[in-house]
Amino acid sequence: MVQHQADPQEQTFSTLLEGEYDYTRPTRGQVCYADVLSVGENQVIVDLGCKRDGIVPRSDLDLLDEAYRTGLQAGDHVPVCVLTGSDRNGELLVSLNQGLAMHDWLRAQACRESGEVCEAEVTEVNSGGVIVQFGRLRGFAWRAPVPGEV
Question: Range of 87's domain?
């Protein structure tokens, strides 16, 4: 009786089929960093490091400022937020706009936790304080009353 020995490629393929491949499916709302693979007029394709590439749809690209959108190119490392595990066509949709906003939230949180003073541009003034722009986020900074002021 001749015993068949599997070659290394067969063993590797067998291992993948048995589900031993270390893979976690991205979930809705998850923010991760991706590498831009291609930039098209209607979509951007990014590598999330999983089985499928992510697609940033045109509707999301339209939310980005013109300078950022036109400067985007293959090879860029960008934050994205997972919109769907897969759409009706089986595509993994991600948002670059939401990923960039979340990146700014994390920067603001890190500043707060470290006690570092963050600079933000004042964009509006009202009776209670000011509206500021911090990256892609808008915030409100209240104005403390001056003693003796009504």
Answer: 24-101
In a domain, 63, yes or no: yes
Strands (E), the chain: 31-39, 43-47, 54-57, 77-82, 92-95, 121-126, 129-134, 137-142
Residue-wise pLDDT for 71-81, tens only, equals 999 999 999 99
Q: Is 51 contained in some domain? A: yes
Name the nearest CA neighbour of 34 among 89, 71, 72, 90.
72
Tokens, residue 88:
């009706």
Q: How far apart are CA 138 and CA 22, in angstroms?
A: 39
Q: Is residue 60 helix, strand or coil? A: helix
pTM exceeds cut of 0.85 = no
Gyration radius from the chain CA atoms: 23
Mean pLDDT of 97-126: 89
The pLDDT of residue 135 is 86
Q: How many structural domains is the chain composed of?
A: 1
Q: Is residue 12 part of a domain?
A: no
Sheet holding 137-142, edge to edge: 121-126, 129-134, 137-142
Query: What is the rounded average pLDDT of the residues 81-104?
Result: 84
Whichever domain contains 90, its CATH number is 2.40.50.140
